[in-house]
């Protein structure tokens, strides 16, 4: 018996029957004696439709009006879920961002939650109602509707859970948890029962797109236990566990490596014979940042010619043409004698694990495994809990599977 | 140069191109130097879609949630129109019912407007913005969204015009004005340039469904000049006039009869040999009212048998079976000896005109015209500015055309 916040995304509420299914899940938690607040997204496709209306009028549109328009999607879903709960004899009431209110900054289109006022929600819960909250939206100080940016409903749910001091925040999605690797590549990938916030952040940022990054950051800051689980199973989150994302201190049996991830959305750019003088990096990354190009891995080596250096970095594959365009402009003005190489047939493989901090040899094992398979490592970057390497794209599956086995992540085979 | 409130219905904002067309009309009024507030409905079909979601969950649903759900339609349109105006370089801002606020009663699903707060709207207009207001919706004292019932956006527009003391409220619709008769029946029907509120109310209630009745009542009470005009012409309402609905004192050249209307949605019920005792009418109309059956024309005659009487009344055709069911129940308990006749092949023809008050012989001319055409009158009712007769349905066109000519309403033919 506790207070749960449940969040259901767009595919979980895509149709009226899907919303009925969500109502059944909520009913199970109510029957188990929990108090429940629910956060919902718009019905799948609705937000895209609304955005397309805006784009059809103008490519550059006022974010204040955009917010008022797209926030209507969650308004519909929250009302419909309240109706579906009421039909089951469960008192329920919908609450929009401005009604709670969920107070945000006034950066329209990507506002940040400043505070979730709890008086209205607590009163609703104390009346015995399920509080059904429209996700993704809030209220700016000036009284206008704001939205939190794509995937913002995850953040809404965590913020509501933090404000209400909920026992758990269950994020229902189209996967039943976080896996040690992509099951489409690694057939023996297994569901991770517990993962730390830090690991989850690293997982999400390298491609295991389950939770919005901001929601995990917020959960970590507010110490909200978050569970990722499937809305397409008949059991509720209290019955069949998904993956719990929680403080590392609460995870007793910590694996050294929790997961192996990969990303094919990578392109590599190398600048050779770069003048090795102060300010040269700024001359390159300044214009790229201005062009809104996100640079990921960066390594700089000493060149054979001591007055010159080599620089390699990665960008997302879609940004490669624009990146080369920017660099060529820089080359003409500032980088005489520098050559630019690029390739898009690369893949980034990462191993992630809190346990790395207390074990030595984790990275070297990775390099050894890849070497044994004859896979050349082009770039390496490391963080405290992650090692990433860039390799030729054709080796992606081989690398992921080999590492998954090497770090003992393979699921025991049914005998 | 003045302050105009323009209202655009669902077909006028059905698509993005239609919304662009609306923006062009608003731009014309701005270019002419007017300040403009706009009230919009949901895109055609959207409200029906939202209602169908509610009905799919439950036939009986909570009106509070219904209101939150369906109000989202106008939210989208108001934002999109603001964007379309901004694209034309016209500052614009959308305002939802709760933002204005438009304060209503808490009768969800058919709330009545109590007050339109003007501070927010005036500030918006004074900043040089077009205030784009979501029609059909308001805010109940408890902080929940309300809706005004179908067609409520007309009422929103008139209420906003009254609160802002606008010079005119232009209701753009799919017809270019109010006609002396249905042009599909009377080819020489002409557009009425000016009509009084009272006449408009009588026109609307007998089938010329152009404006929501409540909006006309409100306009009459608040003396708001309302113009009905087409959104499908390129000119604005300040350029090509539609029909002005206004106080009769301001209409200089008043026709004796302004229009001839008809309704085929009629059924006649006759009770013969009814006991002529006090309370008998209540025994009949009480149960009908309880069954939510709306009774229109009622006439009672003296019967040859002095202790008995004949009673005839009309109901809408769809209500006839239910009416007969109710009457048969009453017959068994209270009306022994009474016979019940009914017929659904009847039509109601009305002549409407403020001028009737000051002219004699207007009704008798109607009876004479019908008699000359061999049309039998089954029931007659009169009000101060309307005479209605019930006739056999097959005479509908003949009656309407003959009366239209007889009262001098035919448009001059091009020579």
Please tell me about this protein's structure.
2 copies of one chain form a homodimer. By secondary structure, the first copy, chain A, is α/β, with parallel strands linked by helices. Chain A folds into 2 domains: 3-248, Acetylglutamate kinase-like (Carbamate kinase, 3-Layer(aba) Sandwich), CATH 3.40.1160.10; 260-406, VC0802-like (2-Layer Sandwich). Chain A contains 12 helices and 18 strands. The first copy, chain A, has helices spanning 16-31, 46-57, 63-70, 72-87, 119-126, 152-163, 197-205, 213-222, 280-290, 320-334, 362-372, 396-406; strands at residues 3-8, 35-40, 92-95, 102-104, 113-116, 130-134, 137-139, 145-147, 168-173, 194-196, 226-230, 243-246, 259-275, 295-302, 308-315, 339-352, 379-383, 386-392. In chain A, strands 3-6-2-1-9-11-12-10 form an 8-stranded mixed β-sheet, sandwiched between helices. In chain A, strands 14-15-13-16-18-17 form a 6-stranded antiparallel β-sheet. In chain A, strands 4-5 form a two-stranded antiparallel ribbon. In chain A, α6 runs parallel beside α8 (213-222), α7 (197-205) packs antiparallel against α8 (213-222) and α9 crosses α10. The first copy, chain A, is globular. Chain A starts with a strand and ends in a 9-residue tail after the last helix. The model of chain A has no long low-confidence stretch (mean pLDDT 91). The interface between A and B is large, with 37 and 37 residues.
